Amino acid sequence: MGDIAIKVENLSKAYQLGDFGTGTLSRDIERKWALLRGKEDPFLTVGETNDRATAGTSDIVWSLKDINFDIQKGDAVGVIGRNGAGKSTLLKVLSRVTVPTRGSVKIMGRVASLLEVGTGFHPELTGRENIFLNGAILGMRKHEIKKHFDAIVDFAGVERYIDTPVKRYSSGMYVRLAFAVAAHLESEILIVDEVLAVGDAEFQKKCLGKMGEVSKGEGRTVLFVSHNMAAISNLCSKSILLKHGQLQTLDFTHTVIDKYIRTGENSDGQVNKDDIIVKQHSTKAGFHALRLLSPAKGITADFGINEDVIVEIEYDVYHDGAIVQPSIHLLDTLDTVIFATFSAPSASSTVDQFYKVPLQKGRYKSTCVIPGNYLNDKNYKINAFLVPEGDMANMAIAENVLAFTVIETGNMRKEYTGEWWGVVRPKLAWQTEQVL
């Protein structure tokens, strides 16, 4: 296999929903007989892909379906996808926590994995004992573990509690020690799921730095699942995109992130009430629809660099007398907030008639215009908010609710059309005159 660290061929993983029987005694016997002979389960092939957005008719769901890829030694690879895409299942199969239903996984070297808070730790054992236990599971000798012991404890910052049973640790302490063990012990492959989100921001930064050191400095292979696109971009040169348990692409990280944003559920320029994924609901107002419009093309998710991007928020006010301000955040693909704006008096002092005015119960539509010749030619996404006055904790929040692309084609602005620095690209007025 040469320089290949992980080789995955035709990997599929099925899960049975509800009753584990087939429904008839004869089929149960047929399944048992097939499995005893080392054959595939004859009743798994009727399963469905892992699409949580639609109702299924089968009791079998394919969390992964026909996955194929190779990962080279020393590569840091991100695993990207929406909730339910199969990311965690893939890492569990690679970590040998669960076995594939079909296909094969070949791994060259020892694997240290951090999949869930507490993975690989015995709650009754102390931190010290768990470090040695994890090392032994990886096949390391006692003197090899001792060599790294002080570095592990120092990195985790749990020296005071190292002889305390880990069941008494907070979730943050647990994950700090677990990551320190996985990163410092001598494995060829490090697999880390989203668990780093449990730690504080400083420790997350420390972990990302350590993973970069492990990959670039020590030549170990890293697989990293995260919803933080900035972290994926900074750490991983290549990434895998999963959707409904199927591999969409394995490519350079910036290409994969762009595709992830553009293949979102709401990248056609509009999303209606039943499809809006609301992170936080409000008792005062709720989203009915959100749209992106071009003055020339109507509803769209593709804008020329010189076109206005019109954002429409249609929303319901539930009670008479509520004061509600619609708001949006514009983000790039790395979740950097480019700007935030909300319904308020404009710079020209033309007051929005609904600004701080009690509203009657009913449906309203607010429109915001992002001017042409302002954004760079990139992919963007929008978070939307409905903010009741004086009650920020009761606002409605919809994240990643719309996605769109700004492109320059045909030399629209008669300028250099290569990649420009920055997230905005305003067309500003310049004047040159001879002064001497």
From TrEMBL:
Entries under SUPFAM superfamilies matching the protein: P-loop containing nucleoside triphosphate hydrolases
Record bears the keyword Transport: yes
The organism's taxonomic lineage, starting at the top: Bacteria, Pseudomonadati, Bacteroidota, Sphingobacteriia, Sphingobacteriales
Domain of life according to the entry: Bacteria
Protein family membership: Belongs to the ABC transporter superfamily.
Keywords carried by this UniProt record: ATP-binding, Nucleotide-binding, Transport
Name listed for the protein in its UniProt record: ABC transporter ATP-binding protein
Entry keyword annotation includes Ligase: no
SMART domains named among the record's database cross-references: AAA
InterPro entries the UniProt entry points to: AAA+_ATPase, ABC_transporter-like_ATP-bd, ABC_transpr_TagH-like, Bact_Polysacc_Export_ATP-bd, P-loop_NTPase
Domain ABC transporter: 47-269
Gene Ontology molecular functions: ABC-type transporter activity; ATP binding; ATP hydrolysis activity
Listed GO CC annotations: membrane
